[in-house]
Amino acid sequence: LIVQVEDNTERDFTAMFYGTGNMYLKYLIKGRNIITDRYLASTYFWNCTPDNVDFFDFLVRVSNRPDFTVLLFANAEVRKQRILLRNPRDPDLKKKIFHDAQYDKLQEFLDRYQMPHCRIDNSLLDVEETAACIQQEAEKVGVL
Questions:
Q1: Which of 34, 50, 99, 133 could pair with 29 as two cysteines, CB 3.0-4.6 Å apart?
Q2: Hey, how many other C-beta atoms are within 10 angstroms of the C-beta on 66?
Q3: pTM, whole model, 2 decimals?
């Protein structure tokens, strides 16, 4: 039996699968300062439904809470162009992933669990400028 997690439409299953990975990271990074991409917010974004919110309440409680989360925003057209530049055959280009309203669910997660965060619009910023903004925001809250 082969299970394709990415293609699975059962959000309870994928929430538990990826959520277990988030919980395991707690033990892997114990006592270390780690910067990670997405982590709990991404698991919530892709897998949280009205029926499994209790699981996310548990997951946030037992996992390491980030000291600070940066929510990078780029408008839909910029995101699409960036993917095209990286890989014109990227399967994400065929998906309906380019709605700016999707950021609302990430914001909902950060607000719901009262996680320190900032939002940076990097639609017009290059990598160096984005990194400088992140550093500046992290310094403001004393993370760096």
A1: 34
A2: 19
A3: 0.83
